[in-house]
Each structure stands twice: as structure tokens, then as C-alpha cells.
Specification:
The protein is an all-alpha fold. The protein is 75% helix and 0% strand. The longest helix is centred in the middle third of the chain and has 64 residues. The N and C termini lie far apart (98 Å).
Length: 135
């Protein structure tokens, strides 16, 4: 008989549950309706399962959004790092070129780059001669 006892239906506790704060708490917990009716246990369990499922889906969605934004930020930082490295390489080439020009003179550099023949990469000599012609 104790397993079937429901304190919300006990007539001796009616005064206790008529307290406004207790009543509000029970409504908020989903144990009674706003009209004061006791919610059956299967209905209560179903509502709580749905509520928990919604909370779980919301948490999973928030976690997915955070992970996606972190991935996008990492990609953006990699792109920035790649661009900075490319700029640093270009600046390094420019400094070497300026240093060589000041040390040996421009005609020697033109002569050197026009005679260089790289078998592995023809674009290397083309790139450097185009850099020289750009100035």
C-alpha cells in the first residue's frame, strides 16, 4: 500500500499543499496542473522525458555550433599564417635582391639570372627574372 500512496491526493495534507509557494512549486515541477489537478505518473514521466530530450538536443546543438565556430576560426588562422609566411618569403627575396644589387650592381644580377638554368623547375628562373623586371 505504501508504493501506491500519493501525498498529493492525501486529504490530510490538503492544507499543506494549499500554501501558495508550495502550489506554485508543484505547478512548476509539473506534478499538478494550474487548475490544481494531479498529473498522472505516466503523463508526468512522458513530459519529463520530452523535457530532458529537448535539453539534450539543445545542448548538442550548442556544442556543434561551438565546434563549428572553432573549426572556422582555426581555418581562418591557418589562412592568415599562410599569407604571412608568403609575405615574409617575398620580403626575404626582396631584401636579398636589394643586398645583391647594392653589392654587385644590377647588370651582374641580370646576367646571373639570365644564365641560370634549373632543370627541375623552369618557373624558378622565370619567377626571379620577372621579379627583376618588375623594378
Amino acid at each position: 500500500p505504501l508504493a501506491q500512496y500519493n501525498s498529493l491526493k492525501d486529504e490530510h495534507l490538503a492544507g499543506y499543499f494549499n500554501n501558495r509557494a508550495k502550489w506554485r512549486h508543484l505547478v512548476k515541477a509539473g506534478l499538478i496542473t494550474r487548475t490544481g489537478e494531479v498529473v498522472p505518473e505516466p503523463v508526468y514521466r512522458l513530459k519529463m522525458a520530452r523535457k530532458e530530450h529537448k535539453r539534450h538536443v539543445r545542448d548538442m546543438l550548442a556544442q556543434a555550433i561551438v565546434h563549428k565556430s572553432l573549426d572556422l576560426e582555426r581555418k581562418r588562422q591557418v589562412d592568415i599564417r599562410r599569407k604571412l609566411e608568403e609575405i615574409a618569403k617575398m620580403e626575404h627575396v626582396r631584401r636579398i635582391k636589394v643586398r645583391l644589387e647594392t653589392e654587385t650592381g644590377r647588370s651582374v644580377i641580370k646576367h646571373y639570372f639570365s644564365k641560370v638554368n634549373f632543370q627541375d623547375s623552369s618557373s624558378y628562373s622565370v619567377r626571379h627574372t620577372s621579379l627583376l623586371e618588375a623594378e
